[in-house]
Amino acid sequence: MHGNDAQMLVLTVLADGPLHGYAINTAIEELTGRKLGPGSLYGALARLEARELIRPADEAPDAEERHRTMRITDAGRDQLRTELQRMARVCAAGLRALGITPA
């Protein structure tokens, strides 16, 4: 899975509410049928936090990363909306090209 895909999955599941690392991966598994590897998950979390698209949800700063509850920021919601709209256009075009009417 590409790094940007992992980031999009993290943003998608956090859009529904704050979660900690293990719960984020469980939600991703429920959505996609597979979990991210630890490097992909925690790499995505670190990149998203560095870009201020997610942030810790008011807790002790020394919590272990897998136990840190993260929440999506307004900038993260904007980024997710933009990417999902772009992906929807690509999906619709691909389905039309295959002769399938997009939902």
What is the CATH topology descriptor?
Answer: Arc Repressor Mutant, subunit A
The low-pLDDT segments are none
Total DSSP helices: 4
CA radius of gyration: 15 Å
Which H/E pattern describes the elements? HEHHEEH
Using DSSP, what is the number of strands? 3
The side-by-side strand order for the widest beta sheet comes to: 1-3-2
CATH superfamily: Winged helix-like DNA-binding domain superfamily/Winged helix DNA-binding domain
CATH architecture: Orthogonal Bundle
Total tally of structural domains: 1
> Mean pLDDT, as a whole number?
90
Structural class: mainly alpha
Instruction: Identify the overall geometry.
Output: globular
CATH C-level class is Mainly Alpha
Estimate what percentage of residues fall within beta strands.
5-15%
What report would you give on this structure?
The protein is 59% helix and 9% strand. The protein has a single domain (3-97), classed as Arc Repressor Mutant, subunit A. The chain has a 3-stranded antiparallel beta sheet. It is mainly α and 103 residues long. It is built from 4 helices and 3 strands. It has helices at 3-14, 21-32, 38-50, 74-97; strands at residues 19-20, 54-56, 69-72. The longest helix is centred in the last third of the chain and has 24 residues, at 74-97.
